[in-house]
Amino acid sequence: MSVYYSESPLWHEIIGRVHALLERVKISEEQFKAQNGDVLRLRKLNRILSIHASTAIEGNVLTLGQATDVINGIPVWGPPKDIKEVQNAWRAYNELDSYDPWNIDDLLKAHSYLTSDLIGESGAFRTIDVAVVRGDGTVLHRGPAPTTVPHMVNELLIWGRGSLAHPLIKSSAVHFMLEHIHPFRDGNGRIGRLWQTLILSKWNALFAWIPMETIVHFNQSLYYQALLDSQIGELNCKPFIDCMLRMIEDSMHKYIDIAASTSADTDVGINVGINVGIKEEILKKLTDFPNMTANELGAQLQCSQRTIERYILALKADGKLIRIGSNKSGYWKVVDKGLQ
Q1: Are residues 230 and 326 in the same domain?
Q2: What is the pLDDT of residues 292-304, one digit of tens each?
Q3: What domain range includes position 282?
Q4: Which of 35, 103, 266, 304 has a CA positioned 20 to 30 A from the CA of residue 4?
Q5: Based on the structure, what is the number of domains in the chain?
Q6: Is residue 332 exposed (0-12), middle (13-18) or buried (19+ Cβ within 10 Å)?
C-alpha cells in the first residue's frame, strides 16, 4: 500500500517540542508520586478521560462521571449500549501492552474487545459496502470494496512495520489510513485512535496514559475536517498529520496540568474534569468578563497562567478570540462561543 504524505518543515519543530515535553511528563509523574504516593491513580484518571472522550466522539451520551462509575463497577442509569461501549473500551485499552501494532490478528482482537456484543461482525472485517455521509445526505467518503479490505489493512501494517518515519508521523498516518479504509462495520474511529495510542506507546510507554482522545473530542470538527482534507483529490495524509501532531502536543500539556492539579484526597472521577474543555471555559469566562487577565483565568480554572496563555493563542489562531486594544488596557472579544 502506498501511504503518501507531503512533509512539512513544521513537523520537525513539533517533534522537538514533544521530545522535550516527554521529559516534563516524566517529571510531573515523579512529582505526583512524591506528593501522593501512587502514580497509577494519575494514570487511571487519564485513561478514563481517554475512554470517555473516544466513545463520546462516536455519540456515547454517558457523562464523564457516569463513565467513571461504570469503570469502577458502580451501577449507573444510562443506555445499555453506551454502558457496554465504555466497558469494552476499558478492556481494550487495558490490553495495550499485549498488542503488536503490526499484527493483523491483534488489530482484529482489539476490535473484538471494543465492539463485543454491540455489532454482528465484531473482530472481523466488514462484508458490506460503507460510506461516510453528511447530515444532508452528501456522501463524503466511500470505503473500498469489502473484498479488498483484508489485503489493504495487511499492506498498511507491513508498511508501518518497515517505515523509518518518526513514530509521531507514522502513527498519525496509520490512524488516517485506518479511517480511510474503514475496515470494520462499526468502531473504525475508536480503533484508529486506539491504534495510534498503541503505536506511540511502543515508542515511549508514557503515551499509553496521555489523553490524546480528549483533545480530539474537544476539537472534533478540526479532526473530521483534517480527515476530509486528506482525501480531497489525490490521497495525502499531510492535513491529518498536521492536526494530530498539534493535538498530541496539547494532550501532553493536559497530562502535565492534571498531574499538577490533582491531589491525593480527591477520588478518581471527582476532579477528573480538570482542564478538560478548557477552551470552552475560557470562552465562557471572557464572554461574561472580557477584561479578565490570563492570571485571573488561571486562578478560576485551576491551571497555570502559561497554560491559559497557550490556549488563548490557539483560540486566536482559530479565529475564536480577538484582542481589542492594547495588552494593558484592551479587552477580549469572543467571535464564536462554540469551538470548532
Answers
A1: no
A2: 888 888 777 766 7
A3: 278-334
A4: 103
A5: 2
A6: buried
Annotate 126-156 with b (16+ C-beta within 10 A) or e (fewer). Answer: beeebebeeeeeeeeeebeebeebeebbeeb
Backbone dihedral region of 142: left (phi > 0), alpha (psi from -120 to 50 degrees) or beta?
beta
Q: Which CATH number fits the domain that encloses residue 143?
A: 1.10.3290.10
Domain match, 66 and 199 both: yes
191 and 313 both lie in a single domain: no
Q: What angle do CA 239, 241, 245 make, to 5 degrees?
A: 125
Q: For residues 61 and 303, give the distance between their C-alpha atoms in angstroms, rounded to a whole number.
A: 27
Q: Cα–Cα distance between 218 and 40 in angstroms, integer?
A: 25
Written as nine digits, the cell of 203 is 515508542
- Tell me: the pLDDT tens digits for 300-327? 776 677 778 878 887 887 788 888 887 7
At residue 20, what is the residue type? A
Residue type, 145: A
Q: Are 58 and 46 in contact (CB under 8 A)?
A: no
